Predict the 3D structure of the following.
Amino acid sequence: MARHAAPTPPRRVLARAGLTVTAAGAALGLGGAAQAAQPAAPVPVAGSESQLTTAGTAAGQSLGTSLDHGTAGAVAPVKHLRLNPLAGTGVDPLDNAVGTQVADFKPVSTALVTGPLTQGGALKDLPLAGAAAGLLPG
């Protein structure tokens, strides 16, 4: 019997099902938290602001703040993670640069693009992606 036709072991099926349920639960949880973080419309009351409106506003602000801090804590390591694990070794495939110069013009090289990666840079160190990564929290 060919390997692709062999039955899948039950442990693998259970692991896949568990990961799928976990991912779906995380997506629902983050979606609900993002929805709850949006400020609710104040309840119209006669006279001054009621305690219920004050409590609702404070809860919404604290949830938004905690979501911001949680997102910053999750995204910050990604921004500082070393992208090229082979940087600085003798087998780094990105440690090459091609350059040329025509007549009196300024020389052109690929070192500007591959340089941050061959030096062991992170996402925040890349020329164009670093500016976009600066918009992420953390």
Residues 74 and 138 are 8 Å apart (CA to CA). The first helix runs from residue 10 to 37. Strands lie at 99-100, 108-109.
